[in-house]
Amino acid sequence: MGTSSHNRSGHHDRQLDSKGRFSLLVDWRPPSGESIYFVKVKVEGIPALRVFTQRAFDRKLVDIDSADEATPAQRDRARGILFGAALESKVNDQGKLTIPKALAESHGLTLPGALRLVGRGELFEIFTPENGDAILALEEETRQSDPAIAAMLGF
Q1: C-beta neighbour count of 92 within 10 angstroms
Q2: CB atoms near residue 112 (< 10 Å)
Q3: How many whole angstroms separate alpha carbon 49 and alpha carbon 52?
Q4: How confident is the model at residue 154 (pLDDT cuts 50, 70, 90)?
């Protein structure tokens, strides 16, 4: 299994430097030269930056193109919205990813400062440490209160 198809998992704390760079976990790095895409989202109502690998971004485009319930105009609009919302970047040769200052600050991150990475399989999300704690608590609450999810997870 190639690096770009690794599943990113767990919660990891990292430090942003004054230029918005942080060291990405080795197993989470895409192949050299491959793009990643930042998209501002809300997860359970909590602000996050979703970071798509090239493979995850391409899969999202395929999902849009194969949405049977959508009209061709709606699929075109959804593709346009996705491209308009995405900010393309690359991991540098030292394994660092840069969050542009305006994007980081609009997300509540401080430069320099801390951030929390949360693995989501082919993609990952970036939270402030406080929001990372909040999403962890919400996911634990969901796991404990939703029998269907608890059964699927088996823990």
Answers
A1: 12
A2: 13
A3: 10
A4: confident
d(Cα 64, Cα 59) in Å, to the nearest integer? 9
The neighbouring-strand residues paired with 22 are 97
Which burial class, exposed, middle or buried, applies to 101 when counting CB atoms under 10 A from its CB (0-12, 13-18, 19+)? Answer: middle
What is the homologous superfamily of the domain 3-153 according to CATH?
Transcriptional regulator MraZ domain (3.40.1550.20)
Domain boundaries, the chain: 3-153
What's the pLDDT tens digit per position in 53-69? 999 999 999 999 999 99
Name the nearest CA neighbour of 47 among 55, 57, 39: 39
**Which is nearest to 109 in space by CA: 48, 155, 151?**
48
Q: How close are the terminal C-alpha atoms of the chain, in Å? A: 27
Q: Is the pTM of this model over 0.85?
A: yes
Q: Which of 139, 129, 117 is nearest to 28 (CA)?
A: 117
Residue-wise pLDDT for 73-85, tens only, equals 999 999 999 999 9
Joined together, the tokens standing for residue 142 give 């969901």
Q: In 31-41, which positions are buried (b, 16+ CB within 10 angstroms) versus exposed (e)? A: eeeeebbbbee
Task: Return mean pLDDT, the chain.
Answer: 92
